[in-house]
Amino acid sequence: MPVEIIDQQDLPVPRSWLRKKLEEALLFLGIPEKEATFILLDDFQITLYNQQYLGRPYPTNVISFSQREGPFAAIQPHLLGDALLSVETARREAKEYNLPFRHYLLALAIHGLLHLLGHEHETSPVAAQLMVKKELKLLKGLLGVKARKILNFVRRREYMPAKLAVNVDHVATVREARKVNYPDPIHAAVLAELGGAHGIVVHLREDRRHIQDRDVRLLREIVKTKLVLEMAATEEMIKLAKEIRPDQVTLVPERRQEITTEGGLKVKGRTAKVREVVEELKEAGLKVSIFIDPDPEQLKAAAKTGADVVELHTGHYAEAKGPEEMELEFARLEEAARIARDLGFEVHAGHGLHYENITPVAAIPEIEEFSIGHAIVARAIMIGMKEAVREMLCLIERAR
Ligand code: PXP
């Protein structure tokens, strides 16, 4: 039998399922003739091994003893060795990370198996990345892409939390409601940065309903992180962007009658036109992002424009009615993020995100940055800008 499971502890474990999955893993790896033993222990038992062989007097989730390195490697090359798993730790950690226990146990066993095959994540960051990639490939093959929680969990170890760029348009909305000189989006930007924002975003609209030219110019002077200018791809705006030189330009569609941006930029069918604008901005030395629906066709078209970044439109996810629609829109976002990353884009996301819906999207590992405005400004009215930004950052950081 290529996989043997020896159970020396008392908690219930799906042993035959685990054995079957691990045998499939050997098949996936192209080594069905190899043999590995998985020994299931409790915390007390694994602590003895951890102490004796690794000098660590505490429980751990998995320890591997590879036979490739020992004196028997040449004598019995088909034997990979033994992986010890603490079911007690696995249970505790699965609960803590909110993961299905059997998926987490399998992930630990796969991790142990890769150690038996000579993978060693502690030797270098590159080795760690290679190991995670292999783990992901195996888990996806064994559980299917629907095992999203465990796949994201494993993937997350590879990634940093996403950044947060704060859109201060609606501070200007309040000011423009009375055509006075307060509240000032410049003050809001300073406080947002002090609260930890990684960037400040403004949308200079054609009708100047909130942000004014003066705001963008002053922000260019005072923003310490990075300034993102959202704008329509019009001659007037391109000229302004080239003059003011924000750190990033995000191209968005714009309709005068809309309350807020309603959808992503349509790139498919207009690739040449969009490429022309992207090229002009890039030639001026500006980083260019395209705000786009989470649609593979649009993404493929965007890849032909030369844009550096795509910002995935999260509005459909945010406005979904009921859990089923939300699940569907979330799946679209996840897939689009993966495709965008594979196409070589830096992946951002935004629109309609708030404190109650951010957590699942913030766990999508490919998304590097969020652009959030309305919800933060709304909360800032109640609790102050710095605190509102901090709370959002906390949710984003905790999601991975
Ligand atoms: N990203 C883009 C491209 C936007 O147009 C907007 C709205 O101005 C946002 C993000 C922020 O959306 P919200 O204000 O709903 O957070």
Record keyword descriptors for this entry.
49% helix, binds pyridoxine-5'-phosphate, eight-stranded parallel barrel, single chain, four-stranded mixed β-sheet, 400 residues, 17 helices, Collagenase (Catalytic Domain), 2 domains, alpha/beta, 16% strand, TIM Barrel, 12 strands
Descriptive report:
It is a single chain. With 400 residues, this protein is of the alpha/beta class. The protein has helices at 15-28, 43-54, 87-97, 101-116, 125-143, 148-156, 169-178, 185-194, 213-222, 235-244, 271-283, 296-302, 315-318, 322-342, 358-362, 374-383, 385-398, and strands at 3-7, 35-41, 62-66, 79-86, 163-167, 199-203, 227-231, 248-251, 287-292, 309-313, 346-350, 367-372. Helix 12 links the parallel strand 9 (287-292) and strand 10. Helix 4 packs across helix 5 (125-143), helix 5 packs antiparallel against helix 6 and helix 16 packs across helix 17. The chain has 2 domains: 3-156, Metalloproteases ("zincins"), catalytic domain (Collagenase (Catalytic Domain)); 163-398, Aldolase class I (TIM Barrel, Alpha-Beta Barrel), CATH 3.20.20. Helices cover 49% and strands 16% of the residues. It starts with a strand and ends with a helix. The chain contains 17 helices and 12 strands. It is elongated and about 80 Å long. It has an 8-stranded parallel β-barrel, surrounded by 8 helices. The chain has a 4-stranded mixed β-sheet with strand order 1-2-4-3. The structure holds pyridoxine-5'-phosphate (PXP). Pyridoxine-5'-phosphate binds at residues 167, 169, 203, 230, 250, 252, 260-261, 291, 311, 350-353, 371-375.
